[in-house]
Amino acid sequence: MEGKSASEPWSGLAEMRPVVGRFLARRCRDESEVEDLVQEALLRASRYRRSLADPARLRPWLLRIALNVLRDHV
Predict the structure, then answer these.
(1) Half-sphere exposure of 20 (CA within 13 A, CB side)
(2) In sequence order, which residues have a C-beta less than 8 Å from that of residue 45 and are 6 or more positions away?
(3) Buried residues in 54-70 as b, exposed as e (16+ CB within 10 A)
(4) Is-contact 46 21, C-beta < 8 A?
(5) What is the 3-state secondary structure (H, E, C) of 8-56?
(6) Residue 49's closest CA among 6, 4, 9?
(7) At what angle do helices 31-47 and 58-73 cross, to 10 degrees?
(8) Contacts for 3 with CB less than 8 Å, ≥ 6 apart
(9) Cα(24)–Cα(17) distance, rounded to whole angstroms?
(10) CB count, 10 Å around CB of 25?
(11) pTM given for the model
(12) Residue 11, CB-side half-sphere exposure with 13 Å CA sphere
């Protein structure tokens, strides 16, 4: 993995935190739960980042992960 930084799985994810937070807040009323769900969604996204074939699809891919995290939680 020459030329790849250790933070590459996080590339672009931190900037998406507010988007994911708003997305989940519309579906979950408990603010502390929302923050936990956002964190879990971002962790899963970084873990499975290599499965994202098209980087332009980061937002819908991440929101799908967030929805799956919410469903797992419920």
Answers:
(1) 32
(2) 13, 61, 62, 65
(3) eeeebeebbbebbbebb
(4) no
(5) HHHCCCHHHHHHHHHHHHCCCCCHHHHHHHHHHHHHHHHHCHHHCCCHH
(6) 9
(7) 120
(8) none
(9) 11
(10) 16
(11) 0.83
(12) 11
| Backbone dihedral angles phi then psi of residue 50, each to the nearest 5 degrees | -65, -20
* Distance (Å, whole) CA 17 – CA 68: 16
Can you tell me which residue has the tokens 């919410």? 70
Residue 26 tokens, joined: 């519309």
Q: Tens of pLDDT along the chain (74 residues)? A: 444 444 476 778 889 999 999 999 999 888 999 999 999 999 999 999 888 888 889 999 999 999 999 999 98
